[in-house]
Design goal:
Blueprint: H1 8-22, E1 60-65, H2 66-72, H3 77-82, E2 87-89, E3 99-101, E4 104-106, E5 110-112, E6 115-116, E7 128-135, H4 139-142, E8 149-155, E9 164-171, E10 177-188, E11 191-202, E12 211-225, E13 228-242, E14 249-250, E15 264-265, E16 281-298, E17 301-326, E18 332-356
Parallel strand pairs: 5-8
Antiparallel strand pairs: 1-7, 2-3, 3-4, 5-6, 7-8, 9-10, 10-11, 11-12, 12-13, 13-16, 14-15, 16-17, 17-18
């Protein structure tokens, strides 16, 4: 089993205990222990705007890499949440990611390459280098929001000097399947093209449930000079699915009394899907253009400029159970409610950062 994450405490314990395991004799004065780690910020804008080693991040941090996503078969943010301490998954009404950060529920504290991504939808993992989860108040880093934490997705970029092809597929017993493709080609000494494509057909054990998700993300990397790098990408995302809001809950006496804090799912209707295959639908389509310029000003300074334009079109409608009653005659009654909601949004985000490193003391 490979270990991809290391907490600050674990790293400190490792650095303190490593010499004892490295040799059986006395520790010499000139012995040196080197602990290496990964930076949140390398050549691209990630969660933080300054180049910060993991051990210096004043937050509780977890990173899920592309290799871990592949080896553990993750295909959604919900899968990552299951393996991240301090996080829980909320229902999200069957059409969006909804994460509980240390007791604070959020559908908007999501970022892509450090830029806010607060449109409500199910996010795919097909084009990611890693997923960064920071837990705790983050207003200093991210402005509004970030009350309990944030999730930042770092997208794959073109790799100059390499040509490779990666692919994967999966299928389950319900007939759901997925496939993805990752192609990188060096066009010349200073340019690389990378294309990520994903297709997914949804299905499970619940009646009426189905759906399709398709996404494609070509990206170009240019090395304008040894000190200047430009990344340009376009992403198309289309997702259609059935919305299943689950089953009702009730108090032990069978009545839906909202004043009673003890409520459990009604097991007698666990196999019933409360909805209509033509009414409980969610449709999402997005066109997103991203550009980033990174320029090294000197040995200790660099500048990053980013621009993101998104055109989003979403609609969802559903019926869902709101009240359950089991009367003395054994008659069970489930009341349904419903609504229709649409989102049409166009947004432009511009960001610029000048980063300078200096020593302030020993």
């Amino acid at each position: 089993m490979k270990l991809y994450q290391m907490t600050s405490a674990a790293a400190i314990l490792l650095s303190l205990s490593a010499p004892a395991f490295a040799q059986t004799g006395p520790i010499l004065a000139d012995d040196e222990v080197i602990t290496t780690g990964q930076y949140l910020y390398t050549d691209r804008v990630n969660a933080l705007k300054t180049p910060t080693p993991i051990l210096d991040v004043p937050q509780s941090l977890s990173i899920t890499t592309a290799e871990q996503i592949l080896e553990q078969g993750f295909d959604s943010i919900a899968d990552i949440v299951l393996y991240t301490p301090g996080l829980n998954q909320s229902q999200g009404e069957g059409h969006r990611d909804s994460v509980v950060f240390r007791g604070v529920r959020s559908t908007a504290d999501f970022f892509v390459d450090g830029v806010r991504d607060d449109v409500q939808y199910y996010r795919s993992l097909y084009n990611l280098e890693q997923v960064e989860v920071l837990r705790g108040p983050n207003a200093l880093f991210f402005g509004r929001g970030g009350t309990g934490g944030v999730i930042n997705r770092v997208t794959k970029k073109g790799v100059i000097g390499e040509d490779f092809l990666g692919y994967q597929g999966n299928i389950d017993t319900f007939g759901a399947f997925g496939a993805s493709l990752d192609v990188n080609e060096t066009l010349n000494d200073s340019t690389a093209l990378r294309v990520n494509i994903a297709l997914e057909e949804l299905n499970n054990h619940r009646d009426f449930f189905d759906g399709t998700r398709f996404a494609v993300n070509p990206t170009l990397r240019f090395e304008v000079s040894p000190k200047t790098t430009v990344d340009v990408s376009y992403e198309y995302n289309n997702n259609e699915r059935f919305i299943d809001r689950g089953i009702p809950s009730a108090s032990p006496d069978g009545n839906d009394d909202i004043t009673n804090g003890l409520r459990t799912p009604v097991e007698s209707v666990a196999d019933i899907t409360f909805g209509d295959e033509n009414l409980n639908t969610a449709e999402f389509e997005a066109h997103v253009f991203r550009a980033n310029v990174s320029h090294i000003l000197g040995n200790d300074a660099k500048i990053n400029l980013s621009a993101v334009y998104g055109d989003y079109d979403k609609s969802y409608q559903n019926l869902f159970p709101v009240r359950f009653i089991d009367d003395l005659a054994g008659t069970q009654v489930v009341d349904l409610d419903g609504y229709v909601d649409t989102t049409q949004r166009k947004s432009l985000t511009l960001a610029g950062n000048v980063v300078h490193e200096f020593e302030s003391g020993q």
